[in-house]
Amino acid sequence: MSVAFRRESDEEHLEPKFELPIPPGPNLVTPRGLELTRAKVAEVEAAVAAATDDEERTRLQRELRYWNTRAATAELAPAPEDGEVGIGSMVTIRLNGQTKTLTIVGHDEADPAHDRIAYAAPLARALMGAMAGETVAFGGKADAVEIMDVSAA
């Protein structure tokens, strides 16, 4: 029989299910981020226990492995110096003539829709270590971002 007519199972034609990607580098978090991670582990554990469908349970177990790894590797970021931009800082900036207030947080806590950006984001990297009143380069432009205010989040 030709191999073209032989079919072992439906499973062989499905896309492989890989683990959820974990951002490279250390898992630096704010105290709020650590609490959110722990809460997410508890939430997903409860969902796994309540799942009745095998496919749903498999998906949730995959998600649980991600959150357990993130909880196990979480490191509280050191608090930045007073007035210095760092992880856990709330920063008011002026970029392209617009004023915006951002909070710099860990990867899993990031939510750009609520002005929370991950410390590894390009804008956050440009701001890290700067002080209020300074300007920093961003997007290939020197002095592109003016830091107007820095406070603890």
Describe the protein in words.
Pfam families: GreA_GreB. It is a single chain. By secondary structure, the protein is an alpha/beta fold. It has 2 domains: 54 residues, no CATH class; 64 residues, Transcription elongation factor, GreA/GreB, C-terminal domain (Chitinase A, domain 3, Roll). The chain has a 5-stranded mixed sheet. It has a two-stranded parallel sheet with strand order 1-2. A hairpin with a 2-residue loop joins strand 3 and strand 4. It starts with 26 loop residues before the first strand and ends with a strand. The mean pLDDT is 90.
Topology at a glance:
Blueprint: E1 27-29, H1 31-50, H2 54-73, E2 74-76, E3 89-95, E4 98-105, E5 116-118, H3 122-127, E6 135-138, E7 141-152
Parallel strand pairs: 1-2, 4-5
Antiparallel strand pairs: 3-4, 3-7, 6-7
Helix pairs in contact: 1-2
Domain Transcription elongation factor GreA/GreB C-terminal: 82-151
Biased composition (Basic and acidic residues): 1-18
Protein name: Transcription elongation GreA/GreB family factor
